[in-house]
Specification:
Order of helices and strands: H
Structural class: mainly alpha
Helix content: 40-55%
Number of helices: 1
Largest sheet: none
Shape: elongated
C-alpha cells in the first residue's frame, strides 16, 4: 500500500496539535477503556459468585 503524505489519523487530530499530543490523548483513552473493561469483568465475576483471583487453598503456593 502506498504511503500517503499525511499524518496518521488526520481525522482524530485536532487543529494545531502535535503527533505526540495526539498519541498521548489516544493512549490515555485506551487506558481508561481498559480500566472500564476490567471493572466490568470484575463486577460480572462478583455477580456470578466467583472472585476470579485464581485457585485458593493449600495448592496455590506451588505456582
Amino acid at each position: 500500500m502506498a504511503k500517503k503524505h499525511q499524518p496518521e489519523s488526520l481525522q482524530h487530530r485536532r487543529g494545531g496539535e502535535s503527533r505526540a499530543e495526539e498519541r498521548r490523548r489516544r493512549e490515555a483513552r485506551a487506558l481508561r477503556e481498559n480500566l472500564k473493561k476490567r471493572k466490568d469483568q470484575a463486577r460480572q465475576r462478583a455477580d456470578s459468585g466467583d472472585a476470579g483471583n485464581g485457585p485458593q487453598g493449600p495448592d496455590r503456593r506451588r505456582r
